[in-house]
Design brief:
By secondary structure, the chain is mainly beta. 11% of the residues lie in helices and 35% in strands. The strands form 2 sheets. The protein has a 4-stranded mixed sheet with strand order 3-6-5-4, covered by helices on one side. A two-stranded antiparallel sheet has the order 1-2.
């Protein structure tokens, strides 16, 4: 995804939807370092990013990057927890 400076990475064979075929396998991607994402980020799969971000705010976290579409693959967002860690959120597209 050149417009996002994001490169897809695969460690396992994927199906026609881009999901790993082997249970427990992880594929992903990397993007150019930029504020606030200057270090590797743990990303959590959520059902609904909007609900997750609302919960983050309610519980004292800080949103550092609002919901963003990643092509037609899904959505991402990032927040900072109470200890200063930046954590990613991922939501698959609606089917």
């Amino acid at each position: 995804m050149p417009e996002m400076e994001y490169v897809m990475l695969g460690t396992a064979e994927s199906d026609e939807n881009g999901m790993p075929k082997q249970p427990g396998a992880i594929n992903g991607g990397m993007m150019k370092r930029q504020d606030p994402l200057k270090h590797p980020v743990v990303t959590i799969d959520v059902e609904n990013i909007d609900d997750a971000l609302a919960s983050v705010k309610k519980n004292g976290g800080q949103v550092v990057r609002e919901k963003l579409a990643v092509g037609d693959m899904g959505f991402t967002a990032y927040f900072r927890d109470s200890e200063g860690n930046v954590i990613g959120l991922w939501q698959n597209p609606s089917k």
